[in-house]
TrEMBL record, chains A, B, C, D, E, F, G, H:
It is an enzyme of class 5 (isomerase). Its EC number is 5.4.99.18. This is N5-carboxyaminoimidazole ribonucleotide mutase. It comes from Candidatus Korobacter versatilis. It catalyses: 5-carboxyamino-1-(5-phospho-D-ribosyl)imidazole + H(+) = 5-amino-1-(5-phospho-D-ribosyl)imidazole-4-carboxylate. The lineage of its organism: Bacteria, Pseudomonadati, Acidobacteriota, Terriglobia, Terriglobales. HAMAP family: PurE_classI (MF_01929).
Length: 168, 168, 168, 168, 168, 168, 168, 168
């Protein structure tokens, strides 16, 4: 990926990689260059703060942060960066309810754009990042329209398949 | 507001206006033109679908949707629009837990950028919309940097006030 | 099933089919013709709206909709149709609590008749549809009486089996 | 109301009357005759069982039952009657979460058509009852179409009012 | 078990038998005669009501009822019987939270003595029944004292075992 | 109350008195002598342990314990006494959900007979204690039968009042 | 307070002061010098990080941090400091459940010593700080013993008062 | 382990050993001597009370207590000891939500320093105990600084590994 990354994906632990890869796949689908890294609000606060402070300067447009439990990563990055930050709650011992609340319930002044718990959320984080970039990029906006059509077509195919199966 | 709106704020009921006005205030703070309306996924599905389909064409860049209970408004708009959609969960008989889950737990393919329940969330929806616009607007990006500094200064003032009160 | 369908079963994804088939089985038990399809409030909003608007005209009397997570399908259909809509919350990463709240907490004006989470709910959706049809169909009403007797008999058989096992 | 009641509204306590009156108002809006009574699954099991067994014979088409806490009323009536039973969860010390789960999580075989917690749910219980009756009553079905239009018009009026207020 | 049963164990479904057998084991440990049966508040309301009304007359002193989901069995029996009724919440799709709330949140006037969700609760239901009988039966009261000592001894043994394992 | 107390009511704080008085009222309604005291598992562990150990010896048959938050009082008493212990969860900052779970989720071996959160639960704790005493006291058992009839009569009166109000 | 502070109390907003003052009162009761300040993980990340990094060097032994909603303050400080950090969850729109989970569910490696939601938690945060200091300070340890006796005495007084009131 | 133990680890059941061993491992990492035992607030109240009362006298500085469900162990020990008590909520049928609330929601006067549910919490309990000891032990404080650096280094290694994997 020689292109300069527009989106940065970070996660609190490499055990979150399987989930956060879904965000990467979404971005690849839209042809958006991204970087991906492990950092931790709690275990590596300096690395995290430095990452957050420098992201905009490096040309990053959107940050996606995944974390579980007392999921502070997205919020801590949002505190240090002026970029839009998307938070992905990773499932936990409490099924991700703690991760969700820790990510979404941010105080007035510092938003985190929170998506669904787990893989669906990671997929959507990538799409949301693409939607944000598309607000000023006609080519991505067109791909987003195509994405919508693909979703609808997917439903039509499943519908047809179900009807075919029942017709037998 | 003669300028063409870049952000559309919609809400399920006029009883949500007091909360959703916080989003408007945030946008005004960044000098971003917006429109604000009442529409309902359930009571006015045609108006809602039409609004969602036409928003991008009218120059809207970001949609903010507030709803409570089985809060479908943001999700339904996200289904019809390629724009980034920010969902504000309005407090309910269950304190907004239902509103939050109905807004955030979207399936893979159709993200809703969910913020906190209630007024803090509405304030942050406006800021998040500004952050999204700022990804391609240097002037707004500079205002976002100033916003961050103002937040930090506000903490310093409260800190000073607390210390002064204790010094007496 | 050459008869004209009286009940339409729809679901947000073909992965919900195993659960929603329980609704179909219930209807078959009462000899009620039905149709079954995949549609999605989020991925296929046009198909969903069209389905909902046309259902009554095609002779459908009751709609059963199953969805999980931010489960908007039943509510969105209820917004577009005057028919009774039964919502089946599909289990999710949060065990279906999000699906349940997204389905049941509808605002005043647009009811969704919500049943239990998962297979028991799907079974009951079919029975509830039959009860609704039975309000104007003596033959189905008689079958409903027989259904009740069968339930009681089932308990008697389990009771007898337990006693027999213990008598050994 | 000299007409023979088609819907029976029952509630566990007269303290639920303020909420359950919303169901009555909905029915009155559709011109559907109803009866309303207090009975309790726990304090008056015989009255409740007798009511449930006789309702269909007396010409009742739909039963609406409201109860809070360990809300067994709708389920107990559904056990004794073949009619569709609509359950309204009444708010409680736990905000109605207990009432909702006790009403909706019925086992396979005995559905309760559950609506939202509190007044919105009671309003919707009346509308749902009307929808059920409308499946075999063209006049009520026409009123339901008018009801939908009125909902949409209500949103338009609120939208216009909001725009007028902002234009000043 | 030729002796006349003092305790009746009932459950909503034979799938609850594995859990409810723990109650039986507790009673056997205290040498208390019991009967065990399947009945259902929803599928077999007449059998359930008859069981509840006749239990005291047949010499039953305590009733133990296990059910899951919208767990009405214990409450419905408590409505019909003057005996102490112990409710065991059976785990469900929501881990038994619904079963617990449906069992414990009874209205003023009709208590259900609720124990923990699942096997621990079933075990304790048997012990609680024994404690109730022990209020008027010196022999059982003495066994209860021995039960307490056995519990403490069990802890001592585990403690010794842990220490021995670590000493190696 | 010169009679020797058969029931002991204890509570963690005198702020619980308003709620726990409902248990006392229930016992007075059955003419059962009781004692009432403040003790705390956390602030006064010795007093609590001594109370629990001596209760049976002083002729107490049943213990009722009310506490909120991390409500350990009932469990700690159950650990020290062989008597049946009834736990009343007192409402808290979390509406009593913490109090309920801390009271009911006891491990196998040491039951706490848990009733509903708050006043309804306290009322029922007194009735449950009476039911336990009634297992060996014909006079109390007869009063329990009368109590049931009074409950049903209360429902009839409310029903009559509602009908009278509507007839106007 | 001329003495060098051993405990630092910080809170996310001056609106938390009423609650966090309870921690100060506890420390005053033990004669432990403290400092108190407003800082925010999200609005003032630099001030917060600097505070956390310097606290140990300034002679602080324990940090108490109160925050609500997505309560990251305690965790963020724990990431930067080697001192024991006590987290006080401040009540929120969700009654503090979000604050509690955001504070307590820290990942392996970085503990936050979490206490109860709200004022009781703040009081206990001060006591816990005193217990920590008491592990190496005989004078404070002796005061802790006195504190325990005072708690027990307080229960005795409430008990006596209740008995006196009933004796009238 | 010939050294005198500074930390005591106790757990309610030997089935908690796998989780609580994580606390032991943390302490071993800091070279802090500890003892480990099984005791139960409910099954062995005398052993528990004796342990709690004698711990400080035996030179114990910090107590770590793990328990699940109605998790009273930490609170009961805190009631009897002046030492800091760390509570580890053990996962349960409700995923540890009951264990967490039973441990953390202690009343004003008797704190329990609560950590995360399960293994992460147990690991952190050991680290928190080390932090407490480090407030008066320079050698442990230095190891705590090293621990922080190791955490950050661990993140760097994972980051490098992820980048290396992607570079292929």
């Amino acid at each position: 990926m020689a292109e300069k990354a527009l989106v940065a994906i970070v996660m609190g632990s490499d055990s979150d990689l399987e989930i956060m890869n879904e965000a990467a796949k979404s971005l690849e689908g839209f042809g958006i260059a991204y970087e991906i890294d492990v950092t931790s609000a709690h275990r590596a606060p300096h690395k995290t703060a430095e990452f957050a402070r420098n992201a905009a300067g490096r040309g990053i447009k959107v940050i996606i942060a995944g974390a579980g439990g007392a999921a502070h990563l997205a919020g801590v990055i949002a505190a240090e960066s002026t970029l839009p930050v998307i938070g992905v709650p990773i499932p936990s011992v409490l099924n991700g309810l703690d991760s969700l609340l820790s990510t979404v319930q941010m105080p007035a002044g510092i938003p985190v754009a929170t998506v669904a718990i787990g893989k669906a959320g990671a997929t959507n984080a990538g799409i949301l990042a693409a939607q944000i970039i598309a607000t000023a990029d006609k080519a991505i906006a067109d791909k987003m329209t195509a994405h919508k059509e693909k979703l609808a077509k997917g439903v039509e195919e499943k519908s047809a398949k179900l009807k075919a199966a029942r017709a037998k």
